Amino acid sequence: QVQVVESGGGLVQPGGSLRLSCVASGFTFRNNAMSWYRQAPGKERERVATIFGTGTTTTYVDSVKGRFTISRDNAKNTVYLQMNSLKPEDTAVYYCKVVRYEYWGQGTQVTVSS
């Protein structure tokens, strides 16, 4: 049974940083691409970043390029999202997802506000 548990969200001031974590189970983690998504109030969910199994290939939505970094630790079945230079428009619930499975966790709230 696929499961993902996100953590690390919180309230941060503009320009600040947060690191999100997602622990996954129920499948062979190292063989699967992982993505981070976010959904802001009143908006559709959007894919923020993706990392492939070996961790050498990553993709980002244009709005976070140069500020966010996705990474993974296959020994810990964990994917991370390092978020720097945060802006109020980054406020959203952040979710991680196994690319090949239609399963969503509870997400973690990120609020960027002064």
Helix-strand sequence: EEEEEEEEEE
Q: Over all CA atoms, what is the radius of gyration?
A: 13 Å
Which structural category do the helix and sheet elements fall into? mainly beta
The DSSP helix count reads: 0
Counting DSSP E segments of at least 2 residues, the number of strands comes to 10
Poorly predicted tracts of residues: none
Q: Give the fraction of residues assigned to helices.
A: under 10%
Biggest sheet descriptor: 6 strands, mixed
What report would you give on this structure?
This protein has 114 residues and is mainly β. The protein is 0% helix and 48% strand. The chain has strands spanning 3-7, 10-12, 18-25, 34-39, 46-51, 58-60, 68-73, 78-83, 92-98, 108-112. A 6-stranded mixed β-sheet has the order 2-10-9-4-5-6, with no helix packed on it. A hairpin with a 6-residue loop joins strand 5 and strand 6 (58-60). It is globular. The model has no long low-confidence stretch (mean pLDDT 96).
Features:
114 residues, mainly beta, 6-stranded mixed β-sheet, 4-stranded antiparallel β-sheet, 10 strands
Topology:
Blueprint: E1 3-7, E2 10-12, E3 18-25, E4 34-39, E5 46-51, E6 58-60, E7 68-73, E8 78-83, E9 92-98, E10 108-112
